[in-house]
């Protein structure tokens, strides 16, 4: 079994990553959540998996902004149990073809509990200046292979999420600047 999840990101520290994440006030926008839901739906169809999600990793929680196969489109998961907490720390795609065989996941109840997650792949949502602030991920309750071509597709979906977030943030920043100028007159 090959697992390409050991390439740790060493270019930025956690506090800088969190500061960058919290700077994206557009993450609270309802319309943006619809775009993220579209990406999650596309991922589930492209990879033929029952679970797909777009999440952003905070200091203590993982904010699931959109999902397929998980109750509720938006939820919060404790960072210590979510597999996205592994993926956000790496510069490449993190995947577990059979998570039940991974020693580092031996105590993870998403893998060994009722949920029974066995396959997981997550691509970091990376800012233009290299901070991994979130993850586009897919999962299944059965093991499966994950090819280089599939990795590239998942990276492309993560890039789409970042592009959309940057575009929405630029609009928010422009509107905020315009409203501040209007108030100062």
From TrEMBL:
GAF domain: residues covered: 31-175
Transmembrane regions listed in the UniProt entry: none
Record SUPFAM superfamilies: GAF domain-like
This protein's name: GAF domain-containing protein
InterPro entries according to UniProt: GAF, GAF-like_dom_sf
Pfam families tied to this protein: GAF
């Amino acid at each position: 079994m090959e697992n390409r999840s050991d390439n740790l990101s060493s270019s930025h520290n956690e506090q800088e990553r969190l500061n960058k994440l919290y700077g994206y006030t557009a993450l609270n926008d309802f319309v943006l959540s619809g775009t993220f839901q579209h990406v999650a739906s596309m991922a589930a169809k492209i990879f033929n998996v029952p679970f797909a999600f777009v999440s952003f990793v905070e200091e203590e929680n993982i904010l699931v902004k959109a999902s397929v196969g998980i109750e509720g489109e938006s939820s919060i998961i404790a960072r210590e149990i979510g597999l996205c907490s592994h993926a956000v720390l790496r510069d490449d795609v993190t995947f577990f073809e059979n998570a039940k065989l991974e020693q580092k996941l031996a105590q993870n109840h998403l893998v060994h509990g009722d949920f029974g997650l066995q396959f997981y792949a997550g691509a970091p949502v990376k800012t233009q200046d290299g901070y991994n602030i979130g993850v586009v991920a897919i999962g299944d309750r059965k093991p499966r292979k994950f090819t280089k071509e599939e990795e590239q597709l998942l990276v492309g979906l993560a890039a789409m999420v970042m592009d959309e977030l940057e575009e929405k943030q630029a609009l928010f920043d422009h509107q905020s600047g315009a409203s501040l100028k209007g108030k100062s007159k």
